[in-house]
Amino acid sequence: MTPAVHLDTITKRFPGVVANDAVDLVVEEGTVHALLGENGAGKTTLMNVLYGLYQPTEGKIHINGIERSFDSPSDAIDIGIGMIHQHFMLVDPMTIAENVVLGNEPKKYGGLLVDHEQAIKEVRKLSERYGFDVDPTAPIEDVSVGVQQRVEILKALYRGADILILDEPTAVLTPQEVDELFEVLTELTAQGKTIIFITHKLGEAMEAADEITILRNGKNVGTMDANTVTREELAKRMVGREVLMEPQLSANEPGEVVLSVDDIFAEDDRGVEAVSDVSFSIREGEIFGIAGVDGNGQSELVEAITGLRSTKSGSMTYRGKPLEQLSRRERIGAGIAYVPEDRQERGMVMPFDLVENGILGSQRATEFAKNGRINWDRATEHAEDIIAEYDVRPPNAASTAGSLSGGNQQKFIVGREFDREPKLVVATHPTRGVDIGAMEFIHEQLQALRMAGAAVLLISSNLSEVQSLSDRLAVMHDGSFSGVVDPASVTEEEIGLLMAGESIDGGVDATLADTESTTDDEADNTGGKL
Amino acid sequence: MSRADRLRGRIRESLGWLVERSAAERALISLASLVFAILVGAVIILVSGRVTECSTAAFYLPYTSIGFCYDPVQIYLLLFNGALGSPFLLGEPGLIDPSWSVFNFRFGFTLKETTLLVFTGLSVAISFRAGLFNIGTQGQLVIGALATALAMVYAAPLVPAGLAGGVILIILGLAVGALFGGLYGAIPGLLKAYADANEVITTIMLNFIAANIAFVLVSSVFRDPSSSVVATYEIPDYAQLPSIAFPASSNFSELGLIAGLFAIAGLYYLLEHTSFGYDIRTSGVQPEAAEYGGVDSKKTIVRSLTISGAFGGIAGALWVLMQTARWESSVPALGFDGITVSILAGNNPLGVLPAALLFGMLKGGAVEVAFQTDVPSDLIGVLRGLIILFVAMPEFFRMIGKRLLGTDSQAPGAAATDGGDVDE
Question: Which of A95, A326, A405 is the best residue to mutate to test the B interface, defined by the most B CB atoms within 10 Å of its own CB?
Answer without folding.
Answer: A405
